[in-house]
């Protein structure tokens, strides 16, 4: 079985499952970028714990962790099974790396997990293991989680980080209230941040990426809090030594809210 890449997905809001938008169509075609995986390990920005936690639930239910959206979304189900045996292997690899993982026996799929997977693998017949972020840990720590699990890619297991390349909800709400735009100066700050990441990825400048808080432009405008960017470092680490990121999707909502996604080879 060929080694799979790892992925970073900007998952958007739950409405991405319904709305006619480029990011949705990209996710619907995601399976064309990778061979069908034996299983999926996904780190969602909406699963926060102290340290890293691995879900061993054999049959995760649904978490509708959002409000004010179409009623149809609250009836959707993604019935992919969990995979306790794989979860235990993940735990063993994390322990070997000195990361002291915890187990969680029951946890449903939050929208950072089920919405992109429902679009990419709609049959829900591929087992899924969820792992958490720690919002109090930095990029290097999350990168280390990916590095610890990188060998699983050689077994046909797909490692996905699900977050967002930019995540300033205050700006999104402000844009919606003002007719769908932000002031040009603020929009330029979003552009500069996204372009910086794309440039460093293209140059495979891992050290700059891991020091993003100190080196990237306009950090506070793009990520008032860090949690939605941590999955990209997991995916980067999962590429292993010498891995590099290729931006495979770049679209905007309201002209500024970026949906960049990366494949790491």
Outline of the structure:
This protein is α/β, with parallel strands linked by helices. It has helices at 22-28, 84-96, 111-120, 139-149, 169-177, 184-202, 206-210, 212-215, 219-222, 230-238, and strands spanning 6-10, 39-48, 53-55, 102-104, 128-133, 157-163, 245-249, 252-253, 257-258, 261-264.
Layout: helices, strands, pairs:
Elements: E1 6-10, H1 22-28, E2 39-48, E3 53-55, H2 84-96, E4 102-104, H3 111-120, E5 128-133, H4 139-149, E6 157-163, H5 169-177, H6 184-202, H7 206-210, H8 212-215, H9 219-222, H10 230-238, E7 245-249, E8 252-253, E9 257-258, E10 261-264
Parallel strand pairs: 1-6, 2-5, 2-6, 3-4
Antiparallel strand pairs: 1-10, 7-10, 8-9
Helix pairs in contact: 1-3, 4-10
Keywords: Dioxygenase, Metal-binding, Oxidoreductase, Zinc
Cofactor: Zn(2+)
GO molecular function, one term: ferrous iron binding
CATH superfamily: LigB-like
Low-confidence stretches: none
Shape: globular
- Tell me what portion of residues adopts beta-strand conformation: 15-25%
GO molecular function: ferrous iron binding; oxidoreductase activity, acting on single donors with incorporation of molecular oxygen, incorporation of two atoms of oxygen; zinc ion binding
Keywords: Dioxygenase, Metal-binding, Oxidoreductase, Zinc
Protein name: Dioxygenase
Family: Belongs to the DODA-type extradiol aromatic ring-opening dioxygenase family.
Describe this structure in words.
The protein is α/β, with parallel strands linked by helices and 265 residues long. It has a single domain, classed as Protocatechuate 4,5-dioxygenase, Chain B (3-Layer(aba) Sandwich). It is 34% helix and 18% strand. The chain has ten helices and ten strands. It has helices at 22-28, 84-96, 111-120, 139-149, 169-177, 184-202, 206-210, 212-215, 219-222, 230-238; strands at residues 6-10, 39-48, 53-55, 102-104, 128-133, 157-163, 245-249, 252-253, 257-258, 261-264. The strands form three sheets. It has a six-stranded mixed beta sheet with strand order 5-2-6-1-10-7, sandwiched between helices. Strands 3-4 form a two-stranded parallel sheet. Helix 1 crosses helix 3 (111-120) and helix 4 (139-149) packs parallel to helix 10. It is globular. It holds the Pfam family LigB. Its cofactor is Zn(2+). Belongs to the DODA-type extradiol aromatic ring-opening dioxygenase family. This is Dioxygenase. GO terms for molecular function: ferrous iron binding; oxidoreductase activity, acting on single donors with incorporation of molecular oxygen, incorporation of two atoms of oxygen; zinc ion binding.
């Amino acid at each position: 079985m060929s080694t799979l890449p790892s992925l970073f997905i900007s998952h958007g809001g739950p409405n991405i499952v319904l709305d006619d938008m480029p990011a949705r169509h990209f996710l619907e075609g995601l399976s064309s970028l990778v061979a069908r995986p034996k299983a999926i390990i996904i780190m969602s920005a909406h699963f926060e714990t102290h340290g890293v936690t691995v879900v061993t639930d054999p049959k995760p239910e649904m978490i509708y962790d959002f409000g004010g959206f179409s009623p149809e979304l609250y009836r959707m189900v993604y019935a992919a099974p969990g995979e306790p045996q794989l979860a235990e292997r993940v735990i063993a690899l994390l322990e070997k790396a000195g990361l002291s993982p915890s187990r969680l026996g029951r946890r449903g799929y939050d929208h950072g997990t089920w919405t992109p997977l429902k679009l990419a693998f709609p049959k829900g017949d591929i087992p899924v293991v969820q792992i958490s972020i720690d919002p109090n840990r930095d990029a290097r720590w999350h990168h280390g989680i990916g590095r610890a699990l990188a060998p699983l890619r050689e077994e046909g297991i797909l490692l996905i980080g699900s977050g967002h390349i930019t995540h300033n909800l205050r700006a999104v709400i402000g844009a919606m209230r003002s007719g769908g735009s932000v002031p040009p100066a603020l929009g330029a700050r979003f552009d500069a941040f996204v372009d910086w990441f794309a440039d460093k990825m293209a140059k495979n400048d891992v050290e700059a990426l891991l020091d993003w808080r100190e080196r990237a432009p306009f950090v506070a405008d793009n990520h008032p809090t860090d949690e939605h960017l941590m999955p990209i470092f997991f995916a980067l680490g999962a590429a292993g030594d010498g891995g590099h990121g290729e931006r495979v999707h770049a679209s905007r909502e309201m002209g500024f809210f970026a949906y960049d996604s990366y494949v790491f080879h």
